[in-house]
Automatic annotation (TrEMBL):
It comes from Flavobacterium swingsii. It comes from the Bacteria. PANTHER family: SLR6007 PROTEIN, UNCHARACTERIZED PROTEIN YJGR-RELATED. Residues 36-472 form the Helicase HerA-like C-terminal domain. SUPFAM superfamilies: P-loop containing nucleoside triphosphate hydrolases. This is Helicase HerA-like C-terminal domain-containing protein. Pfam families: HerA_C. InterPro entries: HerA_C, P-loop_NTPase, T4SS_component.
């Protein structure tokens, strides 16, 4: 058998699916596209994936192609759009000569299509407002967003535990600031008795960092109404999955905010979705662009958590796809779990680049048809090395693939088009409302007020009976609440504030 015949046989056998599948493009040999479709079974799309490649090689268009194909199979998509170049999926594309040429080569018909899109935002930008509560974030992620060291993170854990024990919800940053103040002043002894001593310099640092976070615009993000995961799973009236785009352009320079949000969302999805086991097709597929931001400077604890979530979320029918320039940005423990790999061209400028190319090629199945390392630097734009999992879960043979073109617009939406989507959106209205129900802030304010009132009453009694020694009386009244000297100092500061009014 000739090499070409042999190649055709292997690709056809490797990429034939019995069940539902999506077509990515056509397999290539010696730089030529053959009429051989690279087909991926829906069944293994919850086994996660990687889309990598140098800048401008076609990663975003590949995600657009994947999203379109998934949506048409009734699978909703969540896209973390950091560069803001994904919104065009809401409008039909145009058939241009270079697209016709590409699609003729791979023998896939091209028909321009628009998709149902929701635009979501973490900030003031128009769209569906994504909010989360501090409690939902949990101590590990909240510490990460503040960039805390181990000692400081320990204090955050105590605060979460304390609020949990006292049934005080931590909704927004106002709540956690109030608790921080409380535990260094009025509640100092209550905390140290039950949870151990907390240094005021540590709480001071944490408070400063919370204020910095507020200045970065996080106040709009923390609070209620918090986003309901079910709203990501919508199917439109034509039975196509919604493509949910989180527009992150305005927090590009705040990678901690974005990455922590992303991890929180994954954790929420994991917690809330029912166990599915083996699925015929995923319930939701998530694309994370600039994925290196999630792993940068992540602590060991956090990396372990990410690895675990990625491992477990599969059985909830959720596929997570990381997009990054250099595949080495993804930690080994995560990389090992990825079923679909789409590697666009890499550039070999520096020694580091060459090392990345070597390592990347080692991560792909060997092929008698390709010199992987050479191919990695010679792939054209919109071409990629693909390996997936077949229906039995076995890696497919390596296929250099000419990707199909997106059927939706390969450019962004205009401001008017964005406004029209948001006006029509049911979710925008649903999440526009800002709630502020009773939480730690209000509860602690009441508690402190109650203490102050008691002190003032005693003060009043003393004046009436002309009893001497204010300090003594204050001491006694407070002793009823908590028998401790430093608590009185706290109460004093409250008293001073009351008296100044
Ligand atoms: N599948 C494709 N079909 C047709 N054209 C494509 C395809 N993929 C990429 N292109 C062309 O290449 C350009 C760059 O692609 P894309 O924006 O996807 O690159 P990228 O890898 O995401 O770059 P960056 O790292 O800068 O985000 C596109 O604007 C388009 O013209
Ligand atoms: Mg891109």
């Amino acid at each position: 058998m000739s090499t070409v015949e042999n190649f055709k046989t292997q690709i056809t056998e490797g990429y034939t699916c019995k069940g539902e599948s999506i077509v990515l493009g056509g397999a290539m040999l010696d730089g030529e596209a053959l009429d051989l479709h690279v087909t991926i079974p829906l069944k293994t799309l919850n086994r996660h994936g990687l889309i990598a490649g140098a800048t401008g090689t076609g990663k975003t268009k590949t995600i657009q192609v994947l999203s379109e194909q998934l949506s048409q199979k009734g699978i909703p998509v969540l896209m973390m759009d950091i560069k803001g170049d994904f919104s065009g999926v809401a409008k039909a594309g145009e058939e241009k000569p270079f697209i016709t040429e590409r699609h003729t080569k791979i023998n896939i018909p091209f028909s321009p299509k628009a998709f149902s899109v929701e635009l979501l935002s973490l900030s003031e930008q128009d769209g569906v407002r994504l909010r989360a509560t501090v409690s939902e974030f949990g101590p590990v992620l909240f510490s990460r967003i503040l960039d805390l060291n181990d000692t400081q993170s320990g204090v955050i854990s105590v605060i979460f535990k304390y609020c949990d024990d006292k049934k005080m919800p931590l909704l927004d940053l106002k709540d956690i600031k109030k608790v921080m103040n409380y535990i260094t002043e009025e509640g100092k002894d209550e905390i140290s008795e039950e949870y151990g001593k907390i240094s005021t310099s540590t709480t001071g640092t944490i408070l400063r960092k919370i204020i910095e976070l507020e200045q970065q615009g996080a106040t709009t993000f923390f609070g209620e109404k918090s986003f309901e995961i079910d709203d990501l799973m919508r199917i439109d009236e034509n039975g196509q999955g919604y493509i949910n785009i989180v527009r992150l352009t305005d927090i590009q320079d705040k990678p901690k905010l974005f990455s922590t949000f992303m991890l929180n969302l994954l954790a929420e999805i994991y917690q809330q979705m029912p166990e599915k086991g083996d699925v015929d097709q995923p319930e939701l597929v998530i694309f994370i662009d600039e994925a290196h931001l999630i792993f940068n400077e992540a602590s060991k604890t956090l990396l372990d958590q990410i690895e675990t979530i990625i491992k477990l979320i599969r059985s909830k029918g959720v596929g997570v796809y990381f997009i990054t320039q250099n595949p080495m940005d993804i930690p080994k423990g995560v990389l090992a779990q990825l079923g679909l790999k789409i590697q666009h061209a890499l550039r070999a400028f520096t020694a580091n680049d060459r090392q990345a190319i070597n390592q990347t090629s080692d991560n792909y199945p060997t092929s008698e048809f390709y010199k992987t390392e050479e191919l990695l630097t010679s792939l054209g734009i919109g071409e990629a090395l693909v390996t997936a999992l077949n229906e039995k879960g076995i890696p497919t043979p390596l296929a250099a693939t000419m990707m199909r073109a997106p059927e939706s617009r390969m450019d962004i939406l205009t401001e008017d088009e964005i406004a029209t989507i948001n006006t029509k959106s049911k979710l925008v209205a649903k999440y526009a409302e800002e709630l502020d129900r009773e939480s730690a802030y209000e509860m602690l304010t009441k508690k402190i007020e109650a203490i102050s009132e008691e002190i003032s009453e005693k003060e009043e009694e003393r004046r009436e009976s002309k009893e001497p020694g204010m300090g003594e009386v204050v001491g006694k009244s407070v002793l009823k609440v908590v028998t401790s000297a430093s608590f009185i100092r706290g109460a004093f500061s409250v008293l001073m504030k009351v008296l100044k009014r």
